[in-house]
Recover the amino acids of this structure.
């Protein structure tokens, strides 16, 4: 049972009780009807790896998986995720800390700088490679349409995702 | 064979693991027990007289602790400007008061008027709706030239006009420049706009103020590139808190690009309110708030004239620029269009006469300040566009025209006060011609034309000035701060090392690259070295990270401190080895006596320093920890040559960036992987400025581009893979690492080549000639220009 922060307690008439599975763990809590899934994750569950970079569902920093689908956690209410299986960046690496193939590729190919967009990028990449294990460069770029990075110019993110799919790009490897 | 550690190795970034696993500690991830939340009621009008604020209803709302207004801040200082500019008549710039919360007057959309502090953010937002403002709307001043020519509406009543300053550089050269232009064989004139941008680091700004009544200690957690600068500005000038009672922490920061250099009202508010309410107070900017409260960048309107003699030698450059300051002077706003811009107007060229005039103007818009490159992109864009235009007018090859006028001998004193120490502009241009495959352009153009498209190739050169210093010089130029940096090298007893640095890493990878330097110097593994940054209670007084200065300035301080450590360690080693310290050599983590097989390991010496049983206590102190402050003798001057190739659809005006190549000279390189990544990101921001980004106000001062729905930033499909090379290296002559700085080059060097490429593409078609299109080159602008 979760201990919720004071910030999650609202007037009774707005209360909604939600239960969901997050990274394999059963969680529940009381939220306001207007509480977004990303707010529940960050403030209610203290899973602060999912970031908020905008307020118009444009930037993708809050990308998570809900029932296996790639979702911007700012674009659904916590109450809408009631009963769902939610996966966040905190659940991607193995329990012993070993990075996933995508995470490792991001480090190997310098696919991140400030790191703020990175959790969303990793979750978006995982979703892509699940559906399309050998994407073309264009398909990678197309899939990242909803994720903005201001640091890398995307070059090394695209390289990392291609590498994670087993498609090293030798022409670029020297960089 | 590439190195696998130390200077020159592409060491993988150690900070990545926490960012990749969601374990970063960004300011918004900090929640302090008992914290309250603040929501700022911001102006939705650009200019108004504020007669009164009624907060009674809001204060009665559930969960509200207090509603603050401008009146609460009358007793504290205004937000200060860090650079005093003296105008061309010898007068100081006009410097208006910049209140924490608006008081009596509202001067731009987004200006904070009231601050509602409540138990929850939702309660604070709800309560802000109940605040009643009594105000009279005033006409807004938005257009810079109108603001100067008509003083009937003033942004600040207490000033004589909307002109902050009229700066001439170098004023004494003005007549000579005029004469040279009059007598020139050819003069190319270009009027252009350097579009207003919003820096948009992906992490919005956050401030969490804390106060401990028992020891009168304030702590501010904030998204800053330079925590010590914030502590000084906010403590000394705004709130009157002495340094020993104020700690500023900037933990993981999600990108800065300049806009997190400055001291902002929200930081002062949260620090102030935490004491007033005796509770932690947290503010997290929404992206919409960021658009109307983060300092914007660029926004220059310029006329530039380039004069050439009959042999196409540059003889003079004259510019007149209107630079938007916005409604208030942000921290370094006044220095950007002047010392960071005028000093670069010689570019890579031996133009004997240069005169720069800048009129800085107050308008009813968000303050404008440094954004990646800060003044140098504006200088580069003007110069490299007008050179391309001159080449086109004269019918000469734009590369040949540049090469003909390159500075080739160093050091070179420009007519705009700076002296370039090193560079090799032909070498970077040679490298560019190779990596960009100029030879294959003709075939690629023919292929595009077969597909009904136009292809253009644009190039440009750039030079920038980084690591701004020395402090005594910038002080003469009006800087109100020193521009040194500092580092403490703390060797632990068993030989591991913690380095406390004034520089701040918010994407640059200092935690990885700085240890590479120490590892190289001492010969111990990189993982034995940790970098500590971002907390004024832990680090020496350094000035932070901006202007591509971290390695050139703070890295130099670190080297100096490490040298002191090594010198002391050699004395200890000499004692242990019963030799003279002059004979001690340090290599691969061992001290040895020259010419003998006697040696002692680094760890044995460090242990002796902390367990000084067998130790020369009468001669040297125990311990092994040294601090150095480093004040550079000159700027550093990275330079390079960039090429962009575009494919243009003449039916729609759509431009695709097909190829982008960059040949840079950054001097020596510590971590090539990180340097390449910095250039990639800079290029993307430059392509963003050239193709997509534009911050737009309407005539009433409404901000039309206030979200990612309206302000277009590059996404993955908007950019190509870049070809980046930094093998041309002329090391800086005056810092110990020979490094120049690489953080801003991409953003400085890329916009002109993009625009030059589009103009080239249009010229290759059969339609009308187009001399210039202002950025961003949206399809509608390109198409309209072609009709």
């Amino acid at each position: 049972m979760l201990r919720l922060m004071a910030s999650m307690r609202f007037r009774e008439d707005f209360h909604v009780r939600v239960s969901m599975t997050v990274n394999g763990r059963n969680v529940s809590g009381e939220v306001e009807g207007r509480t977004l899934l990303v707010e529940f994750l960050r403030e209610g569950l203290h899973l602060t790896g999912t970031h908020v970079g905008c307020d118009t569902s444009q930037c993708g920093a809050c990308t998570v998986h809900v029932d296996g689908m790639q979702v911007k956690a700012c674009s659904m209410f916590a109450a809408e995720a009631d009963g769902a299986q939610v996966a966040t960046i905190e659940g991607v690496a193995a329990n012993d800390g070993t990075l996933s193939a995508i995470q490792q590729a991001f480090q190997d190919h310098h696919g991140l700088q400030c790191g703020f967009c990175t959790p969303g990028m990793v979750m978006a990449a995982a979703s892509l490679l699940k559906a399309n294990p050998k994407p073309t460069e264009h398909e990678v770029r197309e899939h990242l349409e909803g994720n903005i990075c201001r640091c890398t110019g995307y070059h090394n993110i695209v390289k990392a995702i291609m590498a994670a799919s087993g498609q090293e790009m030798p022409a670029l490897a020297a960089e | 064979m590439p190195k696998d550690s130390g200077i020159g190795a592409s060491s993988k970034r150690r900070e990545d693991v926490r960012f990749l696993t969601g374990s970063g500690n960004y300011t918004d991830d900090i929640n302090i027990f008992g914290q309250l939340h603040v929501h700022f009621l911001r102006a939705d009008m650009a200019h108004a007289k504020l007669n009164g604020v009624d907060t009674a209803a809001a204060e009665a709302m559930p969960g509200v602790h207090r509603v603050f207004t401008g009146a609460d801040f009358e007793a504290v200082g205004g937000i200060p400007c860090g650079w005093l500019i003296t105008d061309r008549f010898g007068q100081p710039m006009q410097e208006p008061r910049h209140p924490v919360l608006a008081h009596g007057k509202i001067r731009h959309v987004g200006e904070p008027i009231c601050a509602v502090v409540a138990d929850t953010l939702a309660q604070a937002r709800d309560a802000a709706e109940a605040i009643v403002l009594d105000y009279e709307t005033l006409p807004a001043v938005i257009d810079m030239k109108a603001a100067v020519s008509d003083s009937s509406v003033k942004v600040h009543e207490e000033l004589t006009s909307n002109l902050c300053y009229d700066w001439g550089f170098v004023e004494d050269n003005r007549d000579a420049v005029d004469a040279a232009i009059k007598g020139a064989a050819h003069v190319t004139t270009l009027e252009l706009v350097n579009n207003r941008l919003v820096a948009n680091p992906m992490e919005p700004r956050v401030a969490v103020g804390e106060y401990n009544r028992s020891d009168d200690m304030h702590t501010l957690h904030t998204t800053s590139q330079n925590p010590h600068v914030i502590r000084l500005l906010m403590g000394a000038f705004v709130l009157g808190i002495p340094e020993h009672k104020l700690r500023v922490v900037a933990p993981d920061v999600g990108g800065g690009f300049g806009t997190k250099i400055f001291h902002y009202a929200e930081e002062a508010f949260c620090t102030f309110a935490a004491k007033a309410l005796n509770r932690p107070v947290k503010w997290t900017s929404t992206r919409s708030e960021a658009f109307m409260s983060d300092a914007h960048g660029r926004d220059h309107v310029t006329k530039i004239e380039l004069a050439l003699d009959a042999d196409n030698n540059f003889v003079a450059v004259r510019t007149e620029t209107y630079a938007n300051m916005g409604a208030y002077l942000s921290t370094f706003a006044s220095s950007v269009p002047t010392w960071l811009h005028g000093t670069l107007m010689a570019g890579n060229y031996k133009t004997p006469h240069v005169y720069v005039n800048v009129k800085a103007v107050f308008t009813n818009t968000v303050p404008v300040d440094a954004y990646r490159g800060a003044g140098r992109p504006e200088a580069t864009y003007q110069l490299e566009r007008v050179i391309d235009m001159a080449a086109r007018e004269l019918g000469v090859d734009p590369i040949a025209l540049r090469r003909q006028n390159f500075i080739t001998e160093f050091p070179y004193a420009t007519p705009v006060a700076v002296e370039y120490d090193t560079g090799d502009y032909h070498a970077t241009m040679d490298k560019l011609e190779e990596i960009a495959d100029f030879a294959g352009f003709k075939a690629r153009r023919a292929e595009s034309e077969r597909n009904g498209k136009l292809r253009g190739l644009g190039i440009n050169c750039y030079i920038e000035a980084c690591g701004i210093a020395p402090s005594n010089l910038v002080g003469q130029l009006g800087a109100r701060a020193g521009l040194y940096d500092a580092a403490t090298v703390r060797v632990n007893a068993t030989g591991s090392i913690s380095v406390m640095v004034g520089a701040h890493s918010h994407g640059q990878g200092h935690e990885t690259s700085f240890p590479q330097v120490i590892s190289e110097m001492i010969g111990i593994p990189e993982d034995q070295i940790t970098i500590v940054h971002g907390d004024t209670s832990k680090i020496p007084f350094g000035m932070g990270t901006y202007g591509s200065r971290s390695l050139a300035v703070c890295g130099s301080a670190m080297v100096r401190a490490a040298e002191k450590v090594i010198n002391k360690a050699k004395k200890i080693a000499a004692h242990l080895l019963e030799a003279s310290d002059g004979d001690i050599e340090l290599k691969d983590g061992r001290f040895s006596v020259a010419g003998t097989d006697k040696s002692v390991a680094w760890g044995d010496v460090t242990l002796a320093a902390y367990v000084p049983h067998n130790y020369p206590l009468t001669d040297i102190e125990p311990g092994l920890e040294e601090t150095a402050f480093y004040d550079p003798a000159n700027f550093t001057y990275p330079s390079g040559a960039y090429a962009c190739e575009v494919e243009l659809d003449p039916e729609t005006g759509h431009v695709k960036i097909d190829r982008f190549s960059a040949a840079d000279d950054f001097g020596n390189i510590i971590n090539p992987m990180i340097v390449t990544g910095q250039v990639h990101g800079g290029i993307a921001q430059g392509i963003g400025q050239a193709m997509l980004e534009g911050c737009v106000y309407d005539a009433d001062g409404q901000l039309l581009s206030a979200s990612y729905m309206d302000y277009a930033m590059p996404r993955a499909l908007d950019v190509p893979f870049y070809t980046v090379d930094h093998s041309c290296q002329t090391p800086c002559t005056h810092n110990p690492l020979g490094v120049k700085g690489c953080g801003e080059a991409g953003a400085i060097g890329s916009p002109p080549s993009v625009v030059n490429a589009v103009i080239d593409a249009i010229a290759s078609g059969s339609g009308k000639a187009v001399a210039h299109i202002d950025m961003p080159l949206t399809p509608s602008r390109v198409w309209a220009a072609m009709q």
In short: Chain A touches chain B through 64 residues (CB under 8 Å).
